Amino acid sequence: MEYILSFVLLMIGLYCVTTKKNIVKIIIGLNIMEYAINLFLILIGYRQGGIAPIRTPDMSLAYFLRYSVDPLPQALVVTSIVIGFGVLALSVSMAIRIYERYGTFDINEIKRLKG
Amino acid sequence: MEFIVVLLVFMVIGALIAAETRDLLSAVIAVGAVGFIVSLAFLFLKAPDIAITQVVVEVLTLVVLVRATLRNDITTVEGMRGKIGLAFSLVVIVLITLAAYPFFKELTSFGAPLLSQGKSVSGFFLKEGLRRTGAANVTTSILLDFRMYDTIGEATILFASLLGALAILRRPSHKKRGAKDKEERIK
User: Fold this and answer.
1) Is ipTM strictly over 0.95?
2) Are residues B23 and B89 in the same domain?
3) Test mutation, B31, B78, B84, B170, chain A, max A CBs within 10 A
4) Contacts of A86 in chain B (CB under 8 A)
């Protein structure tokens, strides 16, 4: 159920990217897809009734191993979130530049104006 | 119903609003709401480090996106691509769903990760993380010790993309522009 809902989120992002004409909407769609994929990776690593992978002094190793959630997807998703922000900043700066040059966000009009 | 399912349903609703609303600023605000719900979901999925990172990145994302929409005159969207484009994208979505269906059957059920079946490398990290790196937080010990090269690559990508953004947004200096004007006047 949880996996299917995050897949639905991914598909909404894809729909937004492929059908909208506005550049900002396309960037928003990319952002939604990124959320969906990050969330999916964390959902895979979740353990029912689990604890965060932080070991306090009063925890024995057996208890920690028995209940901790998967730490590897978490470490990779931190990287992925930051890279997603880099992509967003670059694409938004391109969109701002395109707007200054052509005065529109509409990709069809941009195509008509040049090239 | 479980709480995480409620959060996911809210996310889907927010994403639909962001995709379908005509006002660009409302779309940006809706996507910001989705991002904050994502960070709340991370908190409930026992991933506090990611929740913090997501909040920080989300605030920056909202600022950047609002900058893209706010100062411009056109704030509403009209129309979509033609009928053919819409039909094509729906076909692509259906095809991807069909292609993804076998993988859903392969997935372990929610709440029982590969880690609990002893098939994952994460068990090693959990067991040895504190002893080898001295970090009680296993996520941090993976991020900054076992997989340090990934983190260096991430920092490189972030730096390169911000440099690229600066290079795109930089205006040509006034002196140069003045010189060009003068040349044109002479001609």
Assistant:
1) no
2) no
3) B31
4) 157-158, 160-162
